[in-house]
Amino acid sequence: MSICATVRTSREIEPKEIFDAFAKKGERIVVVENEFPNLLFGNYQEALRGVEVNKEENGYEVRICTFASGADYKLFATTVQLLKDMTNGSVYEEDDDETPVEHPSEHYGEEWANSDRYGCFSALRAIVRQRGCEITLFGLFSNICIGPKLLNGFGIALDGDYYMDDIERLQHYLISVQWLLSDKKDTSTRMVIPDENNENRRLSISAIVIEDNKVEPFDYISSADLFGIFDLDKEQDDVLIPMKQLWKILPKDIFHPLDDLQYARDKELTVEMTRDMIKLAERFQPDDLCYMPTKPGQGYDERQNTFILMWNPAISSVTLEDHNQSIPNMLTGCFNWSVWDYEKAKIGDRFFMVRVGEGKTGIVMSGMFTSMPYEDEDWSGKGRLTFYMDMEPNVIINPDEAPMLTTAELQEAVPSFDWTGGHSGRILTTKEAIAVEQLWNTFIEKNEDMFDGNTSNRIE
Questions:
Q1: CA end-to-end span of the chain, whole Å?
Q2: At a CB cut-off of 8 Å and minimum separation 6, what does 43 contact?
Q3: What are the pLDDT digits (tens) for 208-251?
Q4: N or C of the chain: less Cβ packing under 10 Å?
Q5: Cα Dmax for the chain
């Protein structure tokens, strides 16, 4: 999303004329792109996304993008007015080719700016909520990754009210990050991975590199689709994982988060630490980096296995209270569960968690696995060999407050499987998996109005 105004004029001006005019007006401008056809600049220590001026056939287009700062909006108004005055041109908005804007500095004033900022942020927040993950925007100097964790950290709920003060606090922090990173070295690369199933899709890579027994220097980990570690001193020790899994492998005393995906390096990262990261990252490296799993309730995918996780609150390390508290925080929480048939499981497989035992029983969670199986301490304390998998829920339900697909309904539709108990993490046959997916899809469609964020929650 962006807003643009076009100054229609036959007069051609040089970038230097524009920047000289800003200087005369007392504007402290930092220029990132200083040649036409595209200029990019912003106010010193105040810009977040900056302002663009693009040379067009009939004049100059001034553009400001979604989630720009208050200073960016003011500079946008100033720039439109300045170009109008310099060229004696006429200003038109993007969606109105007939009505000129006579006084841009007044038309694009504070009231308009605050209204647009609030509306744009509302749309951005809704997209984050709907997708259940971060949105990456281009900042003046570096990317800005806004997602559930960042918003939660600033007390901005994904549902409910928020205020301009909340936006200001968040943007003030992100502005400081932009200027902190303005002269720092990141981990971005020019490498991409093409998607064989989509010729228009390319996955970008951000990477740490080991060469000659040294970690190539960098100041912060920049965002991309994938995060990689390339050990050029060894032949087979490279890894690539989804960027959103990065936080799980970082040494906590070496890095701190800048936003939902990016991390600043605070201390030296040694070769030994980096190689430890490689070993841990192997847990999160899928066989097909381009594959996008289908969420339960959105149709059957033959590439996914389906597992049934059993949960009895009376004996589980996860209590009913724990489960219910995770409902509003499902986008920021970390979930894992023991899987009995772990040798048959992989990243991208789907799961359904069934509450069993006393009380109301049925499916209380669905989602996908985001790691390969890994061994860890037995949750029950009995010392058994136990393998876990990390999970990403797409639905969580409070069994006492919201409708459920019950164990009785499951047993009737799929009698070949025991829905009342047994080992957690058993795999379904293809026939059973298709039947459960059809039941779940129907249940979701029938009860789509129940997802209020408190008694039940859902990522679409």
A1: 21
A2: 27, 28, 29, 30, 71, 72, 74, 75
A3: 999 999 999 999 999 999 999 999 999 878 999 999 999 999 99
A4: N
A5: 81
